[in-house]
Amino acid sequence: MKFHWTNRLGVATFFTVLIFLAVMPVKAQDGKALFKANCASCHKALKNSTGPMLQGAKARWADADEADNIYKWVKDPIGLVESGTSQYAKEISTFSPTDMTPQGALTNDDIDLIFAYVDGVKPVEKKATTEGASAEEEGGAAHMWIILLIVVFGVVIFAAKGVRKQLAYVVAEKEGVEIDINKSVKTKLGEWILRNWKLTLIMFLIAVVTGGADLMKRGFEVGVFEDYQPSQTINYSHKLHNGEMGIDCKYCHSSAEKSKHAGIPSVNVCMNCHETVTESEYRNGSTDEIAKIHNAAGYDSETKKYTGETSPIVWNKAHNLPDHVFFSHAQHVNPNTANIDCKQCHGNVPTYGLGRVSTTEEINQLAGTDGIIPLTKPLLTMGWCLECHNEKSVDLTKSEYYKELHNRLGSRPDFLRKISEDDKITVRELGGWECAKCHY
Amino acid sequence: MSMKKTYWKGLDEKDQSPEFVQNSNKEFREDLSVDEFIGSEAIGDFQTGRRDFLKFLGFGVAAATLASCEAPVIKSIPYVNKPEDITPGVANWYASTFYDGNDYGSVLVKAREGRPIWVKGNKDFGLTRGGITPRIGASVLNLYNNDRLRGPVSGGSSVSWTDADADIQSKLKAIADSGGKVRILSNTIISPSTNLVINDFISSLGGAVSEMGAPVVSDSVDAIVTPIISDVTGVDVEPVSASNADVKHIQYDAVSYSAMRKANEESFGKAVIPAYDFTRAKAVVSIDADFMANWLMHTKYNVDYAETRNPEAGWMSKHFHFESVMSLTGANADSRCPIKPSEQSAVAAAILKHIGGKDLGIAVSDEIDAYAAKAADKLKEHKGESLVVAGANDKGVQVIVNAINNTLNNYGKTIDLDNEIYLKQADDALVKELVNDVISGDVDALLIYGANPVYTLPNGAEFGEALANENMLSVSFSEFADETASKCTYICPDHNYLESWNDYKPQVGQYAIQQPVIRPLFDSRQAQESLLVWAGKAERGDKESKTYYNYIQDAWRKYGFPMQSEYLTFTEYWNWSVHNGSPTATAIPSTPVSFTDTTSTAVFSLQSSDAAWEVVAYQKVEIGEGQYSANPWLQELPDAITKVCWDNFVTMAPADCYDLFNITGNEKGKWDGLYIEQETPVNMVNVTVGEQVLKLPVYPLPGQARGTIGVALGYGRAENQEAIGSAAFQIKLDQTGDYDLDADGNKKPIGGNAYKFTSFENDSIKYYADAEVADANEKYFLACTQTHHTIMGRTSILRETNLESIISGHKEDYNPAHELHVHTKGHGEHVKATDVSLWDEHPVEFVGHRWGMSVDLTACNGCGVCIVACHSENNVPVVGKDEIRRARDLHWLRMDRYFSSIDDDARSRWEADKREEGNDWSYANLEVPEDNPSVVFMPMMCHHCNHAPCETVCPVAATTHSNEGLNMMAYNRCIGTRYCGNNCPYKVRRFNWFNYRDYRKFKHINNSQDEMARMVLNPDVTVRSRGVMEKCSFCVQRIQEGKLNAKAESRAVADGDIVTACADACPSGAIVFGDWNDEDSLVRSKTSGDRAYQALEEIGVKPNLWYQVKVRNVEEAAEVAHVDTADESHNEEH
């Protein structure tokens, strides 16, 4: 039985350990989640923000002999102050002119979990990140290697050729054949071509055909900037803002529905969030990139004051259309106009770092969702515009503007019949292929 | 009766000069200029052999291929703090007011990303009802003039505001304390707040606030019931301080109306300029008053007059005009009589006599008397509904005109002495006194604001020398170191009007606000703030200074707000006033007038001259008084009458030309000074008035009074190389684009300064003079657009009729449909021209939109505002004089000016008829074509033909048709074959010959070559490069914008939402644009009216542009053209 008993004890121990192992991380996780959900907009663990630094807060209450009041404080700070029972609450209530938001929904256990998490937070070592290092530099390095390789190969070939020549002389001398040393390379090449004229002809034809084909292919790529991702002053991440945080495209590109330009957000838009968000968890607590915004806005993140010395941020445009093209975002994304999803032209932005031009293939992978139409031509070319205008249908019952157009077509049944033959009226059929729609 | 008119664009066309005939069938005349180009010395710069060419070609291709592999990095810099009301890519509109001492107008300014780029009249609010002039339309370019001063200047070098303020303030104080003379010389100030500032300034120096025109503010209840600033002039008030300082404010108008105020003082006891109401005038007689372009409140009169020229209303005003040089107003008159300046008093007297007034016994010729009698008949017919105006700055003439209007009972009806206008308040006698004081060194401090006396005074040069006097403190507020400012001790540059706050009171009870549209570009400071700082009433502010803004607001809070009851809070009142550009107007009831007849004792400066030549210093529509001579848009705008660009000239009657240059009989056809062509220069003459001599080219102007010449004011700017703008000087007529320098290496001014011909006479400035004119035996090239195209004798372009035909006639009489003679199955028949077509119909009717335009030739007065509007809206390049001379002007919209006369056959028949009837036919003798032709203005732009001939000949399909009826132009597809231009029946396609924004030839004149002036470009329109065709697009960028706005707001496009720039700016509403498929649209109703016709309808191009038949209010059949339908149908046979 002893065995059994010990066995049972062992099982119990095992399970206890298991439960501990399972529960402990879960609790820590909860504390982090609760902190993020309820406190993080005003408090930071390691420094003062809108509210005071939270690490050690529990200890500070305990030092003030009011260890229990911390729960009351969190749930109803104003009530605690007004009740007059807590001297410490009175002291800390003057930290900021704004009152702390009561967190009545939290239980004492929740609060314990939060402080357990907060007290465990350790300052992270700041390090520069390498994400999004400029493509040119990498490209430049690659070039260097290629050049080096070519030089090495060149030296090897040259050496080999010399050796071969020497060997040929030796062989000729041995066999008693006379070699004309003065024969020029040109003559030798001519003799070789005459001997191998068929091979030469075939090689020449192959060169012409492949060369021509390549030139044509390159020709079609002129002015095509798919996958173009210029470097930027600020290493901004769409993946973080749009992807992880779910900030809507139009929050920053706010004029997309109103103007032809979607608009690069002005610094004051960044500052809506980055007045309080001063360090990047995403980049291991780095403040470098956000400091650039603060510098541009003339904002001192320590004193939380604007100095008035601003300097605009210079961005490199990713999506460039020629000057003679007038593209209007408003025409395409406004809910009353085409109401096209941003992804149709910009691709899966939530996965990008810096702004970049997507590729048609990438966008085609999204086809079927959000009404995305698969297209074949390279992005941002006129063929691509026209292709879409030929596919995209217009709902003539959608807005009063189109209803009026539809009414007018009533007196031209022939035309209406012609354009609605395939059961849809495309942008093209309403003039979407006309030059002056975009060129004036 | 069949009566045909001959239309001719110039004497060359009328007389069919050899060069005209030779060139008439050519669209492009490059052969001549190529010769010149090859022969030019500059050819060395262009030497390129065949091998070099091939090398360049090969390298070019390789480079282009390589370059296209690498994406150019394009920077984009967003705002740091985006202003809340600016959305990049969307224009903001601001209501403001333009006033410069000459033009006054309520305007709307379009700004893109904070840059003003386009100006139009405010048709909803303000006194001027949308009326502007080309000068106002082009004013936005003045803002970006690179020669504007960057900050205060003293002695040619920059100084700081702090130093300048300290020095000026201390000097002024010293002068005032020692009882010295301080004078402020300004143009007419119609701003109540500015007047208050000047008062503050004067009283701070201890001066008395009592000058004429300077306001007297009472802070009692009076201020609430009377308009903002009491209108009392010349009333003495107690000086604010007991100091013995002599500080006065003198107002000076370069073109003065001082005699008019004096005449009114004599006749009615009020030294005022009354308000004229052209909307109620059924008979208008003007004696040399160019009220559509230059005279007094012309911006308003222009709009008002157009209202009375609507034949559909059932009546039209009848307009008689007496003048020497054909003006815009004269060209629009129903009946025009050329007279000499010295005959003005006689004409006025004759009219007075004929309407039953006193006979003043001033002799007049029979011909003129006959005209005067006819005018008088009409005036009598419309007593109380007529208007007689005179332009002369001559008290005598104005007194007679007052007598005429009084006899006609017009006061209190069409003329309102109580609701006077405040423009042109100068008293020439005071100006003369001041000028003499300055010259004799009696003035200790002179502040010059809004005036350029060195340039505009009759004795400007002498005044300029006196300004250099070191003992006098002279301060100018000019934006430029111009003729006057450059001689002043200090220049304290004022803001441009688009950077300033101000308020205006152009008329009793009428107010307007000027609001800035852009932050000051330079370190300038508003003149009012300068005065306040020197008066010790304000601290110097920075760029964001609100000193004067707060000052105006305080004034309005104190005076304006209590006057009204519409708004409850001042903020609301102020914001709406700024938003509208003008607060609600309040007129005061008019009171009966008491007329004192002083005609018998009237003193004339204009009476019978014996001189062989009389010279008239007149204002052109484009250049006006000459403030904006450096504005290339205005220089390039063809003169409304002569169609000459970039030049000043002498206008002379063709008959006088024959005499002066000894051309007789048949020779005149061969004489090369008469016809203005690329290779045929005109003659030059020396015009001498007193000691002043100007050498100018002669433009033979049909309709000019015999024995008179006209010289336009506003030229000859910057004679001493003053920096007023790079386009202010003559450019060489070659490819270098360098300035044409004189022997001393100085830049030559454009034209000569006609202000030198003016004089002080009877205490007012006289703009006429006796002159000597002598052949200078020199030739000169004029650049003139009228010779560029011909109508090839086609009569179906213009249609004219008279009012009677409209009211009681039938459409078939004056506007018959074109018929063509066709053969079907062996027999001939007549069918409507529009029924025959070679092409299939374009599906534009009832498919979506169909953009259409209607141009009313009756309402259009040819002012040219539309051309400037088009120029600035569509980034049309400025090409300069030499290119215009080569017929390479790039105006998308041109204003064709046709002179017309009855053709010889018809005239002899008509004369015979008249003789048989026993009527007086002497009038017919006046119909020597070029002596007194009638004039039609016809705006001509792309007709957007549904069967466009240009589209079918384009080898690369660069010009195609849209299903909205637009003839589209894709510049990037165009390879420049110019087939389209050749095939265009309307000659409206323009070839872009050069890279105007880079090529050196245009460095001084093209605004896109200047880093400042480039800012005026419209970002919604491509800046075209060389080698492409361009033309009117019906402002497709506005169409796209308008449709998008409608879509975004989920509504149909409303009529009037989408208008072209020309229609938007047209003061008289002659151009109407809209969706022809919208059955309720104005353009639809206009184009289906009886007067609607299409130019060259018979060629079957089916344009989307309709004209409305020109209607004149004339009775005589001979004065009206009837289209001879029978003749025409045969012209088109088979």
Features:
A: about 450 residues; 3 strands; about 0% strand; B: about 1150 residues; alpha/beta; seven-stranded mixed beta sheet; six-stranded mixed beta barrel; about 25% helix
Helix proportion of residues of chain B, in percent?
25-40%
Our Rg estimate of chain A from Cα atoms comes to 35 Å
Largest sheet of chain A: 2 strands, antiparallel
Mean pLDDT across every amino acid position of chain A: 83
Q: Largest sheet of chain A, order of strands side by side?
A: 1-2
Shape of chain B: globular
Oligomerization state of this entry? heterodimer
Largest sheet of chain B: 7 strands, mixed
- Overall geometry of chain A comes to flat
**Biggest interface, chains and residue tallies:** A-B, 61 and 54 residues
Q: Number of helical segments of chain B?
A: 35
Beta-strand portion of chain B reads 15-25%
What spatial order of strands do you see in the largest sheet of chain B? 7-6-18-17-16-8-9
Short description:
Chain A has 440 residues and is mainly alpha-helical. Chain A is built from 19 helices and 3 strands. In chain A, strand 1 (299-300) and strand 2 form a beta hairpin.
Q: Could you explain the architecture of this structure?
A:
Chain A has about 450 residues and is an all-alpha fold. Chain A has a two-stranded antiparallel ribbon with strand order 1-2. Chain B has about 1150 residues and is an alpha/beta fold. Helix content of chain B is about 25%, strand content about 20%. Chain B is built from 35 helices and 44 strands. Chain B has a 7-stranded mixed sheet, with helices on both faces. A 6-stranded mixed barrel of chain B has the order 21-26-23-25-24-29. In chain B, a hairpin with a 5-residue loop joins β37 and β38. The longest helix of chain B is centred in the first third of the chain and has 20 residues. Chain B is globular, with a radius of gyration of 30 Å. β3 of chain A pairs antiparallel with β2 of chain B.
